[in-house]
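Following up on my earlier thread - several people asked me to post the actual chain instead of describing it. Fair enough. Here it is, all 99 residues.
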Amino acid sequence: MAKIVWTEEAEKWLGTIFDHISEENPEAAYKVVNGIYAKAQILLQHPRIGYLYEHEVEEEIRILLYGHYRITYLLRKNDEMVILGVFHGALEIENYLHM
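Reply from S.P.:
Thanks for posting it. Predicted structure:
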């Protein structure tokens, strides 16, 4: 059975996104964070929907887009998707993924 696991790091990213947006608009912050979470749920039905992240390790890392954000996840052979982080599109993702 497919399963989504959020890493502690990914949860921190969501908190940071929420805090940043809520400084200007708390309602929008809830909407964005809930939207990111809802978008990730698509992985339960379509685990390979995200585009393949090109890197030098053997694990299959994919990226699912939601607005300006990239939901980065590891696709494991046991039908488990591990959310590694949620990054704003302006960030250099390579600086944050330490595989």
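The two ends are 26 Å apart (CA to CA). That should answer part of your original question.
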